Queue: 4 jobs
Job 1
Amino acid sequence: MTKAPPRLPVLVVDDSPFSRKLLEHALSGDSYSLLLAENANEALQLFKEHRPSIVITDWMLPDCSGPELCQRIRAESPDSYTYVILLTSMTEKEDIVKGLSSGADDYLTKPFDRGELLARIGVGKRIIDLHREIDAKNKLLEEMAHTDSLTGLPNRRAIEEWAGRQLRGAARHGYSLWVVHADLDSFKIINDSHGHAAGDEVLRGFATILKENTRASDISGRMGGDEFLVVLTHVQQDQIQLIVERLRARFAAKKFSFGGEGISVTVSLGACGFQGKQPPEFSYLVRQADQALYCAKRAGRNQVKIELFSPS
């Protein structure tokens, strides 16, 4: 059984019961879900609650004009498009231009023809569908611009944008923020010995561990190559070693199989934290974490090194 398409929500605004009834009759059927309002205030309340795709409003309302209502609707929903049709008995071009200049998309003169009304709503529906398609594509492009395609983790750009906001919040509210820099040990040997497909599998394996161990209040991502970054908030200094050590141990315990050979891969991690009123640049914390990572590498790899909180 074919599922019926969803009904298009339409808000009708008119203080005349007769006009509302005419519009209700004209739009009766399975295609539209009608909301009826007698004035602008009632219309705005219904708009906030239901976010209709199309608004049909009379020009003359008890508490404001149709063009004014159109402007208020535009201000109420800057992130989504609503198609607005003005109903008017005025036919002067100056009035029509004024209505369209206020942000209305179309107008219809009274008394209206039902066929013309449905045709104009059809135009509105096509435009609404186009806006939604564009919004969906823009959202996808935005996600792609902030996502590492191999691992599905946030990329460097996404981490830096998120961390910049969190640093300001940490300074304002007094909570801690840690930057953890992770680098897979001897990763080049894996690529050289088993091929780049094997290297990709290892990268995805570490990414999975990061995803499974990253709280909603934190972020983890891939910086590029075999380098990853984790930003943790609300973690005390006496807890950070245990948290980062857990990541190291879980990855070291993971087994990979390439060409019938089972291998383990390790990771070295360095961390630097901040807590205070004057936050440093995020790049400074990354550099400090990188220095701690370098110390872990020099100490023999497969280790965790922690820098003390930066001065505030």
Note: The mean pLDDT is 89.
Job 2
Amino acid sequence: MGVWIDHRDAVIISLLDGGDETKRIPSTVEKQLRRDGEGPGPFEADKVPSDISRERNYTGHLAHFYDEIVSHLHEAGAILIFGPGEAKIELKKRFEKDKAADHVIVMEVADKMTEPQMVAHVRHYFHHDAPRLDA
């Protein structure tokens, strides 16, 4: 199986004998960045969540996102995790916390791709890129 991931969504690619399956899992994470020069007025400080609170909320959403991905990959023996940023490293750490799972995990840096490109990448990695006959 393969997973293309960033903090916005993940695409899980399953290589099957009868054809490949893909499943897109969107993230509910929205990192709120503070704009330079903006800040609460003198009486609005209590209406704006603290940086710690925002970070805790962000981390909680990511944990839920990673747990959902892990739940779809428990049956895989080997997993290719690829994508452009830090999310692939964070997902691998999430797998390592799951002591019951025994997976071979490989990570690669990859830029944005279309779903067909993702499937082709995973097929090529696992040497399933032989031409297929469509009936």
Note: The chain has three helices and five strands.
Job 3
Amino acid sequence: MGTTTNLNLLQAFDALLQPARFKDYGPNGLQVEGKTQVRRIVSGVTASRSLIEAAIAAQADAIFVHHGLFWRGQDGCVTGWLKQRLALLLAHDINLFAYHLPLDAHPQLGNNAQLGVQLGLTAGTFFGEQGLGCLGGRTDGGSFAAACNLAQHIEKTLRRPVVQVGPAGKAIKNIAWCSGGAQGYFEAAIAAGADAFITGEISEPQAHLAREMNVVFVACGHHASERYGAPAVASHIAAQFGLDHQFIEIDNPA
């Protein structure tokens, strides 16, 4: 097993994900500093207490996640759940790396790219704020005969039920997608020419838009749509340094 420093890891993650390019909702990079030498990385979707406890059990020196501990709008008080998570990280000297929009956007290893790989989709263009949305179609060049066929394909691949709204019988060729809570990108996806839009969550307005604009909206779960980027990036960087890497799945129905 190889070893490197936490600062070398930070430089490698930054070089790959280029966080300075993004206007984000919280800090990207090393959110909690731990031990200097790193041999084992655990990746996960969210820096929840359950993930931190699992990383401790796995003897991790660093955790790499999409959803970190600090977000714009927090009051800055280290109490309650935040105190409990920080206490575990500090007591066990574990580094916490978190990358939000940069992890969504990486063209090969990011959440959107990896969700496309899982679903057999290839992006041809990008749309929406900061170019985070993907627009393309099936990698095999085919189409889905109806919305139910697309929904069934997503449910089978991601192993969870989805919410499908919009024209049930419409053939689907042009598919847009953006992982997580990207329901606000729906209008941009429609404007870009999508027959269907896939994301993690749906809010009340999108159901009406899907029906009125004759475009299918599929919500497949925030967590379910974002569980592929973190292990892809962490595995890639771990291989550069010869480090041990383990993805730990903490189930989340949302």
Note: Residues 229-241 form the longest helix (13 residues).
Job 4
Amino acid sequence: MKCAALMMAFLAATAASPMAGAEDPKETQALLAALPQSKLTLLDGVRQSAKGSAVPISAKFELEDGKLSLSVYTAEKGLSVIPEKNVLQELSGSPTENKWEPKVEVFKDVPHVARSSQQLTLMALGKASLVQIIERVEKSQSGTVFSVTPVIRNHKPMAEVLVADKGKVSRLMQPL
């Protein structure tokens, strides 16, 4: 029974948009307006999150209680350790301070475990790190990268990268 519930949660997480709350145009515009307050780039947060064997598996800027937050999901034991033996967690905190000091939340709830398990699996299947993907997009695209999420497209691991430029959002698909 637990297996069936976990599978249903996994399917729901894989069908969900990575920016579920930001699909609201008002929320998206509020996020875009807040991005210039950040003293860090998404790339800075991803690099800082890669400590020891921890590997970043997704990252985004978001609004929490109306304030800008930088969130990076990591697999603490790396990409070669399966999700059920790994530590799937979120590092999040304000990027508006001189130093980013994220709080760490280890995922225990089914939706977060399912979503981060999928992201871990997709990153393990790919050949590129989040750092490489963000660097690739920053070289080819103007604007601010504010989200990178592993997704499945046409049966292949891809990264959906969101870029803010002049009040507009571009969604770019990048091979992992």
Note: Confidence is low (pLDDT under 50) at residues 1-22.
